[in-house]
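// run 5 | inverse folding | seed 20
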């Protein structure tokens, strides 16, 4: 009887263990290729000389979007630091709808990938226009370094944050960022480029045909706000924190 009970315990434990989210190396490979190549991308907008690209996603009406900021007034390490360590404190500077969030858990990195930082599960919630239900988001953040000082971060929605508050609709998100150092002869004025890809499935009654056309405007504002953020603050505080990390 004891042996049978132990076997039953193992059978019940396996599904529990297998549901713990982990960073899939294929995500890195797929997202990296999407960020460095223009193959398969179409122009969504060039307003204000900002190129926003789009592409269809198989089996989904929700399009994937991309932009690239050629120069930010900060090093790739610092921009990555802000997007990882400062994401909850600073997101309101480039996403006006952001209202707050938390780190749900920090996971053990894949021991076979020495370039990876510990994955994290994060929760965020967002305001919405009148008559539209607030949105929230639960996602896995995967970070690893590449050659020559390049960093990549990949994001995928997961179900590890508990239920949404009453009246709130949970979005499904796929995204990635690429932080690339720019060649600079002035160590006092480092700069870097930033690439983003973004697919936001809004959920609720929001149809893709209504939201897809609005995404270039949202992403254009985000693009401008990020440039202003790094120019305005010069990341003095983050630079000190990074040097002491």
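// decoded
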């Amino acid at each position: 009887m004891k042996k049978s009970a132990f076997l039953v315990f193992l059978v019940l434990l396996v599904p529990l263990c297998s549901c713990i989210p982990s960073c899939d190396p294929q995500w890195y490979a797929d997202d990296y290729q999407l960020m460095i190549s223009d193959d398969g991308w179409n122009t969504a907008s060039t307003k204000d000389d900002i190129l926003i690209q789009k592409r269809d996603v198989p089996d989904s009406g929700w399009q994937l979007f991309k932009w690239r900021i050629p120069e930010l007034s900060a090093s790739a390490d610092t921009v990555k630091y802000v997007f990882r360590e400062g994401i909850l404190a600073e997101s309101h500077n480039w996403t006006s709808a952001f209202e707050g969030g938390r780190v749900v858990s920090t996971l053990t990195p894949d021991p076979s990938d020495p370039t990876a930082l510990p994955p994290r599960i994060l929760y965020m919630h967002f305001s919405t226009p009148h008559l539209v239900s607030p949105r929230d988001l639960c996602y896995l953040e995967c970070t690893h370094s590449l050659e020559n000082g390049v960093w990549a971060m990949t994001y995928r929605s997961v179900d590890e944050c508990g239920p949404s508050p009453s009246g709130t609709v949970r979005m499904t998100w796929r995204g990635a960022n690429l932080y690339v150092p720019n060649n600079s002869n002035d160590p006092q004025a480092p700069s870097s480029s930033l690439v983003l890809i973004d697919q936001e499935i809004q959920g609720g009654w929001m149809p893709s045909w209504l939201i897809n056309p609005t995404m270039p405007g949202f992403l254009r504002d985000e693009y401008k706000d990020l440039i202003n953020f790094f120019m305005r603050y010069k990341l003095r505080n983050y630079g000190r924190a990074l040097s002491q990390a």
